[in-house]
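Sequence of Malate dehydrogenase (Photobacterium arenosum).
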Amino acid sequence: MQANQLKKGMWVEYPQGIAEVFEIDPDHDTALIENLKDHKRIHIPCSELTDEPQLHSGCGDYY
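Predicted 3D structure, token representation.
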């Protein structure tokens, strides 16, 4: 994905699982995300994020 495709609060997939987007830095094409399982926040390149429209906000499960 690219920074302009992300929104705060959006659920995304990344190589280590599912995360919520907290901040977006379009100048560096990175995002601050929080892992759903361990709640660690990391900065990650937007190219490593995948939009997954089947994720529910608040539960992290597919429907």
